[in-house]
Design brief:
homodimer; 404 residues; eight-stranded mixed β-sheet; five-stranded antiparallel β-sheet
Chain lengths: 404, 404
């Protein structure tokens, strides 16, 4: 990026070069302050614009949707309203803009799930991850499924267990494979998955397909997403119908939805395609964004990667999701799949990083093969502009002991 | 059943012995009449009790929920309200009851999806079906997965494509396996799956498990369910993460939810257990119902079976669904899985009945290996009392040609 004099805000904290939430970002979330109801807001520096109050004050118009406790109704208003609202917020928050715009300090706010998650789908779109995990579950000769380079493989996950950053995650109990049949146990191979999640912002109709171009227009924005995974439960349950309870213990998303509009300057190509794709999956322009990602176990950053390592974009995933005529809806959450680069320190899951427990990783004060009780996992991500960055904030969760 | 003098209704059509909707049944649905908004009703004979009007008239009290266009809010009131409402409706509709209760003719009503489907999960709980399909997809030695007799295997389906009986289903386009990679085609192996669906009527909390006894109490009732399946798309896509677009073209449910209370006299055991189950899946009493089921292709009934052939009950499936702490919610729909008995004419899918196309079935005016454009599939089911029956009505859908 070569914008040497980026636009600045009258909210001074937004102008620091390492601030996740400059005026170029304007991500949406849902917050509350003591005694108040959850309502919609936009992050700017270390403050949150109270969009409900801003609308009451006549500064902005979103048909009253900002007083809702989720962003679904605002998102459903459509791309024209998203664009107009972004332009108006930029005007209000720029230097010389409306210094009276109502804000609260982030430190005084509690963040909530930004959307009512209509349905949750998780994909499997990093070739490194798919290969690494395939080797561990099925051996090197069957590692990459034959259709992997021809379609974005995904599965329907559970929307009810999607929670906002900061929510504790309980280690699950379940069945795992024993010598003589299944054993009832707490999960002993609890893992993270570093992902982004695309938020679907428009409906499609049953029986209709969606082109990749239409799909791009339908995506409102992205969150960080940690798809907590119980690997021992997964290994026993997942054939032939896919992962189920191993993935239903919790999926954590960041409270801020970074809009596609804010990410647009960082659009880039993904991994090199190894074969042509069927026309319904062809992209007319690059479908990825140059987003640096990292994850930490407690205070130790263990993995650093970039969204641009992925093979299938969220737009391709959405087009594939609707290919059989499946209706897509506002609030659908599409996990990109674990984002792993080729080297060990670029992997987005402990299963890969420790080779299923064979090679422990070092952290401040110890080692780990999987996540232990009391551990916290934190995801972070940002796109780097010149003099500013488009950040996602944090997506964090702490693991509680199992309930026997 | 030995109730020689079953209770009779002042709605005469309800007293015919082959009527699906006698006073013993009282299934809930959502209907509209010309110019009116969708609202809640109960089937009685060939009429529908207008519950919204009955509540307005002070005949019944459900806290205003009956004027909603889905039953979720009523169901969320809980089992005590379900029981009290059933008792009150029985009183109002019995001979000598309130002949002024507002009803409309079924013939004048349009039926709607009875619930807003929160999430949809489909299981795989007929051993015959699991084995038969396993042989066709993976060969006889890997037919039944090793965990199959130890846990109810299921996968998350797509709630957005659940539709009410009478909705046309469009044949999907998609990828199937070709000689040299995937081929873009309309589905050539379109199939049905004869199932019941359990409607979850209470929430559970994240991080908490649900016992089988609690799960039984949480189930509001059952519908007929046809999980339309694109077998050629399924074969290419389903490994390793399970079926996805092959199952997202549509899932049809019957408009009437038959309550667990109405089915209680028909409680029975399912298939014999081949090994002990882990304590969290143990049942204190039989978990099935003696429900005769059939499916027809156009005018020809091809399959006849009974819910009592199943291995895992809906209560066990629900307990397993929450074992990792996954929150369950009012309006969740749990498909039982295809209900197939041991013989060919007891199978609930054409894949099994025709052995993946090898043995065509005869229908009036022709033969079929899979479903053709213009074909209708109709499911029916009822439990047989003495002098009455608890029927589900019909669950029907017609297949439209693919959109190329």
């Amino acid at each position: 990026m070569t914008d040497k004099n980026p636009l600045r805000s009258h909210i001074a904290s937004a102008n620091a070069p390492d601030c996740d939430f400059p005026i170029q970002n304007l991500p949406y979330g849902v917050f509350s302050t003591e005694g108040g109801a959850p309502r919609c807001g936009v992050a700017i520096g270390d403050r949150i614009v109270d969009l409900a109050k801003a609308e009451e004050a006549g500064l902005i118009d979103a048909q009253g949707t900002f007083s809702q406790p989720v962003l679904n109704d605002f998102i459903a208003l459509g791309r024209e309203v998203w664009d107009r609202t972004r332009a108006r917020l930029t005007e209000l928050l720029a230097e010389g803009g409306a210094e009276t715009i109502p804000t609260v300090a982030m430190a005084d706010a509690q963040m909530h799930l930004p959307i009512r998650v209509t349905e949750f789908t998780d994909f499997y779109a990093s070739k490194n991850h798919a290969f690494n995990v395939g080797v561990l579950f099925r051996g090197p000769e069957n590692a990459l499924p034959p259709q992997w380079t021809h379609m974005p493989i995904g599965y329907n996950g559970r929307a009810s267990s999607v929670v906002v950053s900061g929510t504790d995650i309980r280690r699950p109990m379940g069945q795992v494979k024993g010598e003589d049949g299944p054993v009832w146990t707490e999960c002993k191979r609890l893992d993270l998955e570093l992902e982004l999640g695309a938020i679907v912002g428009a409906n499609s109709s049953m029986g209709e397909r969606v082109s990749v171009e239409q799909a791009e227009e339908m995506i409102f924005g992205y969150v960080l997403l940690n798809d907590w995974s119980a690997r021992d439960i997964q290994a026993w349950e997942y054939q032939p119908l896919g992962p189920f309870q191993a993935k239903a213990l919790g999926t954590t998303i960041s409270p801020w939805i970074v809009t596609t509009a804010a990410l647009e300057p960082f659009r880039c190509k993904g991994a090199e395609r190894v074969n042509p794709v069927l026309p319904y999956l062809e992209e007319k322009r690059p479908g990825f964004f140059d987003i640096n990602l990292e994850w930490a176990l407690n205070d130790t950053v263990l993995g650093r990667t970039n969204y641009n390592v992925m093979y299938w974009s969220s737009a391709q995933q959405l087009a594939h999701h609707a290919v059989s005529g499946c209706p897509m809806r506002v609030g659908d959450l599409l996990g990109t799949g674990t984002i792993s680069g080729p080297s060990r320190d670029q992997t987005g899951a402990l299963l890969e990083m420790t080779e299923a427990g064979k090679n422990p990783v070092e952290i401040d004060g110890g080692t780990r093969i999987f996540i232990e009780d009391g551990d916290s996992i934190t995801l972070r991500g940002h796109a780097s502009g010149d003099g500013y960055r488009i950040g996602f904030g944090e997506c964090a969760g702490k693991v509680l002991p199992a309930q026997q």
